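Hi R.,

Here's the input for the 3-methyl-2-oxobutanoic acid complex you asked about:
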Amino acid sequence: MTTANTAKPDRVVIFDTTLRDGEQCPGATMTYEEKLEVADCLDALGVDIIEAGFPIASDGDFEAVSAISKRVQNATIAGLARAINADIDRAGEAVRQAKRGRIHTFVSTSPIHLEYQMRKSQAEVLEIIAATVARARNLVDDVEWSAMDATRTPIDYLCQCVDAAIKAGATTINLPDTVGYATPQEYFEMFRAVRERVANADQAIFSTHCHNDLGLAVANSLAALNAGARQIECTINGIGERAGNAALEEIVMAIRTRADVLPYETGIDTAMLSRASRLVSAVTNFPVQYNKAIVGRNAFAHESGIHQDGLLKYQQTYEIMTPESVGVAKTSLVMGKHSGRNAFRTKLREMGFELGENAFEDAFNRFKALADRKKHIYDEDLEALVDHEIAHAHDRMKVAALTVIAGTVGPQAATLTLDVDGTPSTVQAQGNGPVDATFNAIKMLIPHSARLELYQVHAVTEGTDAQAEVSVRLEEDGRVVTGRGADTDTMVASAKAYVAALNKLMVKRQKVAQAQQL
Ligand code: KIV
Ligand code: ZN
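And here is the predicted structure with 3-methyl-2-oxobutanoic acid in place:
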């Protein structure tokens, strides 16, 4: 006879670093307003801690962390700080107005970082840990300390560092796999050893922070839970440095779906996962890969006849979780040109979008224009349209009009009107094909030296009247930005994507200029 396990599952703290580790990855820059919007969404999603930024990095980061601290209702707000007094003071100042504020301070502990990057001895780093954690504790009660490159740090020394941090007052100890090198077994063993060997380990919560260089970030994070970690650091869509961080949606759904072997719980409202994924994708202009677990467009699509047959007979034959549990609505024919404001607003609410009055009006006008050109409007069309509204509400440059002459006899030509800070300007340009002509017109209006690294087109829905979604990646002085645009006209979508990337580049230039003044 088996006895039901009635013990309450352990609560795992979800620490979201989309706005910090996520935002610092190439091309994912967010504007101030976008950061606030993402923070609101993360709070509604139910994350426990929002790492809102790196306050010393720029005035923009400091302002965003301060504003998020003031407005967020539930989550703890963390600000990142190196093990430097000025960083810690700035982070403390940025989270001062949060209901619950945390300083997250870190220092490298591995021999390779100590020798080549920091040029410090192990003894010196131990002293730095004690002093900086104590300084942070004087400013806030909630201090997280991270051992950067923990997975390549000798275990004896790592234990000494953790011991020093806890003695100095750290309440959370994070052991990152900074370079994405560990395997699940190794990561498990590291947590087990540190928790067993450090005398005061029970005075802190242990945290995971995994990068995905070998595609093991989620597996490593879950392995650490089994060794006693109770906080997981992760990002929406897994965005982050290089190959990214552990994906929040994958961790949360693994815990929920495999409760039999992962006896934990989180505070996440999983029905909001899809919405959060779309928002982050829209504001970073990072498309979500089609076959991405949980939030990819194909994650719940069944193509094979055998699978479809099984699903129709009994859903669980081929589905381990329902699309509804992550907030994916079934594709449906939704609206047409006769739909009014009310129906449009209700539909957006059903899909999880809540727009401010101005954004709603703009979205409604764009919807009407789309309905005039396109007979069937699907949920995906509306998503593309609203994502565009969210992502570009604060852009300084906007595509106002475009006419393109294409065809077999070149050169092809484009007449483009751009609004820059509300003032329209028009030019004509020629090119080797309509895309080239359009991009040349943009360059005439906004001269720049950025290099086009990627130009990609795909269809949002099916049919010849589908909206085209275009991604453009630009590179300038090592800075990479991605822009996305959607329209039933591929050339208009291309122009929007290019201009979106330029808008991001401007934000990035400002940030770099501010950081250089420090
Ligand atoms: O990957 C890492 O080690 C980090 C630390 C700052 C926590 O992001
Ligand atoms: Zn990281």
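One thing worth noting: The pocket of zinc ion (ligand 2) is lined by residues 21, 176, 178, 209, 211, 241 (CB under 6 Å).

Cheers,
M.
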